[in-house]
Amino acid sequence: MGGRPVARSQATGSHDGGNQGSGAIITVLLRPLPQVTGANKGIGLAIVKDLCSQFEGCVYLTARDEEKGLETVAALEEEGLSVRFHQLDIDDEESIAAFKTHLEETYGGLDVLVNNAAIAYKGSATEPFGEQAENTIRVNFFGTLAVCRSLFPLLRPHARVVTLSSIVGFLPDVNGDEPQAFSLREKLSSEELTEDELSDFMNQFVERAKDGTWREAGWQSCPYSVSKVGVTALTRVQQRAFDDDPREDLIVNCCNPGAVRTDMTSQRGVFTTEQGAEGPVYLALLPHDVEEPKGEFVWHNKQVVDWVKGPLPGPH
């Protein structure tokens, strides 16, 4: 398939049966102007507030829903926080392009990007499994990939990229039928894996989900989990590219924020959104020229986890 994404819907917003995560992505311009996009609630909003509290400057928030995004910005301003807004839908290529143009023309570059968007279907969802898989992979994986491909050329030296993963983004969660699952895990963790090859794997899962043979192909029975495995593998691929980039000190990591009480989790979880924001903000503000973490799967408590073998620290 040459890394081509599954067909992208022009419709935006939550899919029937799905639950839109806390905004699209988060971007921060640390030097001239902090920017936060797609963070009108949940963990994203908590990250906005945390960033605002840690340095002077105006955080730039974007969201898929312009009206809700502007309402959130107004509420934050009433709290004394300096925030601006730009619409962004990671499931819409024109929206991504417009945001890139805005950043490039207004600021000339980008210093921090936090990928925060995701959808997840409830266990009670009645949509066919193949439909759930297609929608989830399109938004969570291919939407994130599209944003990265668009905005990475704007990254300045010492830029930081953070992608929100999950406990179910742990590689051993690829636990369908063996030996196919073992083969998938080996390929997804390969140091030679490319973005196009990873995209092909994500498309393969969608195809197998539609024809009912995903477990025989080695995949787990949770599209959200597959999407988070995908973005975590993508983080590793991207760091290898950053290591060869002429721009100095580019770092990307992914973070499991923990079981946070949000709309996506139906308010079931161990942590508050403020606690869930701690790990992503730590990674977003890594100082210049750190040796690690780079291209890592980082726990909410800032601990680096072996994505391939574990073990996983608790609590989750």
TrEMBL record:
Primary enzyme class: oxidoreductase
Superkingdom of the organism of origin: Eukaryota
A GO term, aspect molecular function: carbonyl reductase (NADPH) activity
Record keywords: NADP, Oxidoreductase
CDD domains: carb_red_PTCR-like_SDR_c
E.C. numbers: 1.1.1.184
Pfam family, one: adh_short
Entry keyword annotation includes NADP: yes
Listed Gene3D superfamilies: NAD(P)-binding Rossmann-like Domain
Family the UniProt entry places it in: Belongs to the short-chain dehydrogenases/reductases (SDR) family.
PANTHER family: CARBONYL REDUCTASE (NADPH), CARBONYL REDUCTASE 1-RELATED
Protein name per its UniProtKB record: carbonyl reductase (NADPH)
Source organism of this protein record: Penaeus vannamei (Whiteleg shrimp)
